[in-house]
Design goal:
mainly alpha, globular
């Protein structure tokens, strides 16, 4: 997204969360079409549900249907990582962790390293270490709304 397009989005009265997400998407190493798709998906979800906190109170099945319709998983994942929303366990367990846990691990590399060091001391396998140090740790921290283990 160009600086001009971002300025136009800001001037349009778009919600701050959408403007911030557009800035984030602009910095991704993906093609222009993929960026447009992510921004449009976020717009679709926000048009249908402008109050994201109220949306989070909806039943899990309804939110999953909303996400399937809008294709806004990337946007919601970003909202979790930025702590705009705190995910509930049902939604976390329904989503394939993929990019959510990987990105959380990048943002909290010191925490992952601390748990990995403990795993090394106990001679855990590489797979078990990854499952605990990245996936489980990310899930617990995201679900609890805790930024870091420190």
């Amino acid at each position: 997204m160009s600086a001009t397009a971002l300025a136009a989005l800001e001037a349009s009265g778009a919600p701050d969360v959408l403007v911030d997400y557009a800035r984030f998407v602009a910095g991704l190493s993906i093609g222009a079409e993929a960026k447009r798709h992510r921004r449009n998906a976020a717009c679709d979800l926000l048009n249908a549900h402008p109050d994201l906190k109220a949306w989070m109170a909806r039943p899990t099945r309804a939110r999953l249907a909303d996400l399937a319709r809008s294709h806004a998983w990337s946007f919601i994942t970003w909202c979790f990582l930025e702590q705009i929303l705190v995910p509930d366990l049902d939604l976390l367990l329904t989503k394939t962790p993929g990019d959510l846990y990987v990105e959380w691990g990048k943002r909290h590399a010191d925490d992952v390293a601390r748990v990995s060091e403990i795993a090394r001391r106990y001679s855990w396998s590489a797979n078990w270490t990854r499952d605990v140090a990245t996936n489980a740790l990310a899930m617990v921290c995201l679900w609890s709304g805790t930024i870091s283990t420190s």
